[in-house]
Amino acid sequence: MEITPKKKGIENNGVDSKLKFKINTKGENPDKIIRKVMLMGYNGANNTGSETRLISIIEDVRKVLGPDVQITIPTLNEENLRRYIKEDSNLNIAPIPSIFFFAIRTLVKEQDLVLLVEGSCYMDTWTSALLWAFLWTTKCANSFNIPCIAYAVDAGDLSVFNKFLVKREAIKTDLIITRTSYAADKLLKMGVTAPIKHTADSAFTFQTEPEDYNTIKKNWNIETSSETTDDIVGIAVIDFNLWPVVIRPWGRKENLYKWPYYFSRSPKRILASKDLAYKWAAEADRIIETHRKNIAFICMEELDEPLAKNIVNNMRHPKNARIFSSSEFNASQMTEILRNVDFLVTSRYHAAVLSLEARIPQIAVGHDPRLKGLYKDLELDEDYLIDYISERNSINIWNHLSNSIDELIKNPRKNYDKINKGFVEHLAKSKKNRVILKEFLEKKGWDVES
């Protein structure tokens, strides 16, 4: 069903069938009204960051184009997406296959506007296939003369081949809005000549549900020791050794993400994952024993659960730990969990972003440019960012982390001013995303909400 702004003299829910045919097949829209928008991203992955971004961007689109705009959301996992997105007459969930090229081209052809909404847009950290999906979407939109905007996205490290593809295809994007200045600089250095603006991540405007306040305390079903306080240290973990996902015709079932995509696994990587779990377990036990805190392992994506479980299994004090996962809690609940810890150690970008509103003291252990870019903009990169990739072979990395945690737990207000300033600035920048979207469309002569 298609809903468009109503016009006198036009039937069929306000859609002129001839005009519809012309829009969908030729990429032309003579009356300059955007009726259909596609949001292309990492949708349906039980990933809290992607959920908060998508919900916030849907709100932005409706604020700019009106409540009747028809939104299409492609996904590889329809069931997961339906957990937090409700389909209705103005919102369509569109399942696509793992080999996505034809399906994406067909969907793009039907749109009036395409937004690339995945934060990790121009990077191959997770998998080249994801990057190719976004570049292919851009290419298709360009071929149909449909405006395409990368909406508050990031740029990261790329292989030589993928740098070539980004430079060749991203130039066809009508506008690229990056969520950090670091990402904008990276694209410019790659030779991307499309118009680029930098703001902040869309998740900064995400609103939680009132009933989800203090979710962490309501679900803290552990036997706390008399030796510990009620304080909670959140640790948002990620198994760096699973990535990137690679394309293979076959592989071990336990390594399958979704055919033909498999996690990168080898004896060396498996040992590295076990060592990572052991090191995190030792640090969690040290925090419990030294600072009398409890530990919340926060799985921002369902894929983080195996590592979190391995960590708890290796702990001396597992009763003082609890796992909170996006497979169990929705985006609003996960956000409230993040905002109700007393201290955060994060390897997840959106754990850092979503906790900032509560001014939670935090330290990052990053493995790609996303946290680096955020912490650089927050002016926290020199003192509170540990680069796991460059330091992982050094025995000092865990000593570095322990010392930083001790210092910040003893003086939690040490980075408060930077976090407070950073949140205020990033929230204001995030609100500019919809302003920039509206200004861009108006400049191109499109009809938008006043």
TrEMBL record:
<feature type="domain" description="Polysaccharide pyruvyl transferase">
    <location>
        <begin position="63"/>
        <end position="369"/>
    </location>
</feature>
<dbReference type="Pfam" id="PF04230">
    <property type="entry name" value="PS_pyruv_trans"/>
</dbReference>
<dbReference type="InterPro" id="IPR007345">
    <property type="entry name" value="Polysacch_pyruvyl_Trfase"/>
</dbReference>
<keyword id="KW-0808">Transferase</keyword>
<dbReference type="GO" id="GO:0016740">
    <property type="term" value="F:transferase activity"/>
</dbReference>
<protein>
    <submittedName>
        <fullName>Polysaccharide pyruvyl transferase family protein</fullName>
    </submittedName>
</protein>
